[in-house]
Amino acid sequence: xxxxxxxxxxxxxxxxxxxxxxxxxxxxxxxxxxxxxxxxxxxxxxxxxxxxxxxxxxxxxxxxxxxxxxxxxxxxxxxxxxxxxxxxxxxxxxxxxxxxxxxxxxxxxxxxxxxxxxxxxxxxxxxxxxxxxxxxxxxxxxxxxxxxxxxxxxxxxxxxxxxxxxxxxxxxxxxxxxxxxxxxxxxxxxxxxxxxxxxxxxxx
Length: 204
What we know:
The protein has helices at residues 4-13, 56-84, 99-102, 107-113, 116-134, 161-190. By secondary structure, it is an all-alpha fold. Helix 1 (4-13) packs parallel to helix 5. The termini are close together.
């Protein structure tokens, strides 16, 4: 099955870009244990020791990439589950492609069936979001704030530090699980039997 909702969500999800953190004009401190997402029982999540592979700026870039991919994965996973449950947009995506027909295809097949103009709109949205997130006065690799939601903008300035840290931890941890989930979904639909827990599920 596999999803135009996921595709559409992925397009708008890329509208996600620079996690609310206090801006700083000083050098970053590459202390992974103090960053959002370091929670029990796992603690700092860095299975490949990427935090040790470069400078503080490199670590900030990795964290921004993780945030963006987490948000995309959460939307993609939700979209896949929604459409796998038989729910899809009504009507036509274009003059000759219906949302219903796309809902019966595998993810890459559904993407291939999207008209070129639709693909251009999705990729254009991604480009604009990236441009906005990377064009801040103080870039996140130089001590600026990490990615916030671009479309729609969300203001966390009134949230106290403890609550904000809890929300950031939840976002990253849920996003990490979502990245594993969407990869599992793609594996299950592309390679029958590759994900035992999903064998026999009508959505795959």
